[in-house]
Each structure stands twice: as C-alpha cells, then as structure tokens.
Amino acid sequence: MLLSPLTLILIAFVAVLSAFKRLQTWLNNRAFVAAHGCQSPPRFSRFQNILQQIKAIKSHSWLDMWVERYATIAKTFESATVSINPIIFTIDPENIKAILATDFDKFELGDRRRKLMYPVTGPGIFSNDGTAWRHSRALIRPNFTKMLISDLSTFETHFQHLLTALPPADLHSGFIEVDLMPLFFRMTLDSASETLLGPTMAFRSQLDPPGSASLRFMEAFDYVQKKIHRRNILDRGYMKPFGLIYGLWRATKKDEFEEACTTVHSILDNMILEFLRRPVKVLDESRKYVFLEEMARNTRDPIELKSEVLNVLMAGRDTTAALLTNTFFMLARRPDLWARIHTETEESFGGKTPDYETLRNMKQVRNLLSESLRLYPPVPFNARTATENITLPRGGGTDGQSPIFVKKGQQVNYHVYCLHRSPDIFGPDADVFRPDRWDDAGLRPGWGYIPFNGGARICLGQQFALTKASYVLVRIMQEFELIENRDAEPEWKEQISLVTKSRNGAKVALKRRERKN
C-alpha cells in the first residue's frame, strides 16, 4: 500500500528534525570541548575487547586482564562500543575524586544499575539516585552509628555457631580441615540478620536443617548475586550480541533468576509483615539495637522497609564475609603473618573477650585487613553515568594530562582492583601482599585507596564491617594456635558476583590451642 503524501511529509519532517537535533548536539558538544580544552583519551579496539573478555572470564582472570589493560594502554582510556556513547575507563585518582566528590552531583548510578539491582533489592540506598538516595541515606545513616557501638556479644553468639559447625579434628594430627568461606558467609548472614531484624526473626543458617527458610533465603540470595554479575557483563555494549544469544537460550529454560528473586522477597515479606503486626516498642536504650525497629519509627511502609533491609544486608553480609575469606586465604600461605597476629592477640587480650576500643588499636590486625582490602577489594569495580556534559581532569592528549569530555548519559567505569595495584601509588611491589607497607608514614594514597568507595556515597557500614572482621579474626587466633594451607591452587583466583572473593574459598587446616588448667 502506497503512503499518502501527508504521511510522507510527516516522516520527512521527523527525519529532518532528528537530524537537526543531532547536529545541534554535536555542535554544542564541540563548543564545550573547545571551551574546556579537552582532548581525546586513547581508544581500545572493540573486537579485541570481546575476545579478551571471553578468555579472561573462562580463566577466572577477568580482573587481572584489566590490570594489564591499564598498564599497556593508559590510566584513562575509552572503549568503542555499539552504543552512541563509548565507555570511559579510569584508575586515575584525580578522575575518581571528581566522580565521587568534586562533581558528585553531576554523576549518578544510572538506569543500568537500577535495571540490574531492582529485581533483587528494590529501591534503596545502594540503588537509588538523587532525592530518593538522599532520603534513604537520611533514614539509614544514624542507625549505622548505633550498629557500630552495639554489643559485640551478637558477634560472639554467631562465632560460637561457626565453631560448632566445624568438622572434627583428625585423631593423629589434631588438625581440623575445612573451607572457611561457606562458614563465613553463613555466619555473616546470621549476624547481619540479627542486627537488622532482631533475634527472634534472625536467620540461623549455621544451625537450621536443609530446606529451612534460612538456607532457602541464603541459596537464593547467593544465586541472584552471581547472575547479576553475568547480566552486567552481557549487557555491556560490546557484549550485547552474546547477551542476546544467551537471553534467547535462557528463554527456553525455566527462569531460575526470577524464581530466586521471588524466594528472597517472599521470605522477607513474611518477616516484615509479621514485624509490622507487633506494637511499636517504646525506645529503650538498654535493649539491643535492631535496625528494623529504628527504621519503623520513621516509616511503616513494608516495601520501603524490605528494600532498605535487603540493600544493607547485601552490603553488610557479603563484603565482610569476602574480606574474611580473602584474608584467611593469605594467612594460610603466610605463617609469618599468622604468628604476628597471634602474638598481638595474646598481648592485647590473652583469654579475654575482645572489646571494641582495643580492637580498633590493634596495629597488626589493622594492617592485615587494610592490605587484604587493597589487593582483594570485595567490590573491585564501579561505574557512574554523567547527568550533564562535564569534564574529567586528566586522561586526554598524548601525555594524558589534558581534561577529557564526558557527554551527558556517558558511563565512566573505575576499577578499584586495578587502582590498588598501581606502582606509582604503592611502589614497585604493589602486587605483593605486604601488610607492613601500612607502617610507612610516607604512604598516603588518598583517592588511590577506596575499598569502601569515597565521597558522599562512601560506605556507611565501613567501621561496622572492619569491627566485625577484626573480632572474628582475633577470636580465631584465640581458639587456634596453628594454620596450614590445604588448597592445591597456590594463587588467588577470582570469583565475582556482586562481591569478589577467592574462587577456591579458604581451604585450611586449624589446630586448636591447648587449654591450660
């Protein structure tokens, strides 16, 4: 059927208008670039990018691929994609400072992050932008101070459950052989849920039988995080063809991701509704702190309560467990570090229960955790999207010192894992696990060390996570005198979901201390 003259005129008008808008945008961008003295950063081959990504993912060396890429290209570069805006990649501390602090209001998490996170967490502090984020932060921030100073006995209860879950010792050697990683993830799930939901509704994944709500929640929660990372990789511009193929293949299968999300939400929905049926408790400073009770003083919206609990649970549980796993992976291979922490623990506490103030002042423990967070940050990469035309301070031109142009809607990725391995920040041995480097008064990495992010969106639970990790580390030192490696794999390999941990876990042998009568 032939189109009418009027229809043809309308089509032509829309095409001309679209072309005019594109031309106007191009001219405006060109004028912006000239006015700010911007120059282009180096560019990376799209085809080479795809091949390297596939190879690195299969060999569990995706993060090291990025380290090599920054070393061979530049600290800031651009990757051509099939989308209009190429992605900018950077590990320049000045650029990261601009994104997270100086020009914070000109960047956001973006729709892509929300698309990935909302099916699991819903809208909350780690997925919201703008006014919604400020509301979440105002609601949650006061609670982290109370969580930090809350009674450490909560940690001790769940640590005792971890000890109970250990297998029996070998009768001849006296060593207990165990992979600590699943125990750490169960322990942090249980302890975080008790702080968030209260002791009567907390998960007991270390004690409950298979098929229990605790274990079903944990399995579903872990599954969706792993799948979110895969979706993140396959949703990138240069990987989208593979993502479409994968999506078509998955369409013929049962949607396990959706089922897992449903499991997570249904279990927590029931808990939130049960909580809301209870009368509001009178504020009592002598009672143990419960995050949900404090939140409910400001909102009774079950969706908002559930979303914020899920957001905080995802951050508070997984990052601490990953930190502990990565730390014990190294301790099993470094008897010198084990002995050093053991001595400091004995001098600080002897057989006494650790307290908050003393934990804060344990230099060897602090150095060990700082180095673990440096080489193996639980959140190894992040991204922001520009909300308007803007510049980043460096990365353009042949010397990389000129500002670069970031278009409105353009994504900037920064890789914390690679940043923390920069020789110009941490010296020629930047890829070596050396906790003593933190004793060097001259080491002032500033924006070159951001394991908990930085700026306005710095992790509110930073001190809470470090306190929990320090407590568990010290308590293991008090319970066991020796550690040995039981992993045939000598080198750390990545396992990436929403957090990054040792792919092989922390396979160790522990020997209990002899108790003196």
The total number of structural domains is: 1
What would CATH call the class? Answer: Mainly Alpha
Number of distinct beta strands = 13
Strand arrangement across the biggest beta sheet = 1-2-3-9-6-4
* Number of helices, where a helix is a run of at least 4 consecutive DSSP H or I residues: 19
Major sheet description: 6 strands, mixed
Instruction: Note poorly predicted spans.
Output: none
CATH superfamily: Cytochrome P450
Shape: globular
Pfam family, one: p450
Protein name: Cytochrome P450 alkane hydroxylase
Family: Belongs to the cytochrome P450 family.
GO molecular function: heme binding; iron ion binding; monooxygenase activity; oxidoreductase activity, acting on paired donors, with incorporation or reduction of molecular oxygen
Structure, described:
By secondary structure, the chain is of the alpha+beta class. The protein has one domain (35-512): Cytochrome p450, CATH 1.10.630. 53% of the residues lie in helices and 11% in strands. It has 19 helices and 13 strands. The protein has helices spanning 5-35, 46-58, 62-72, 93-102, 111-121, 130-148, 153-165, 180-197, 213-234, 240-251, 256-276, 291-296, 302-331, 335-348, 356-360, 363-375, 416-419, 423-426, 462-479, and strands spanning 43-44, 76-79, 87-90, 107-108, 175-179, 381-386, 390-396, 402-406, 411-415, 480-485, 494-496, 500-502, 507-512. The chain has a six-stranded mixed beta sheet. A three-stranded antiparallel beta sheet has the order 5-13-10. Strands 7-8 form a two-stranded antiparallel ribbon. Strand 7 and strand 8 (402-406) form a beta hairpin. Helix 2 (46-58) runs antiparallel to helix 3 (62-72), helix 5 packs antiparallel against helix 9 (213-234) and helix 8 packs antiparallel against helix 13. The longest helix has 31 residues, at 5-35. The chain is globular, with a radius of gyration of 25 Å. The N and C termini lie far apart (98 Å). The model has no long low-confidence stretch (mean pLDDT 88).
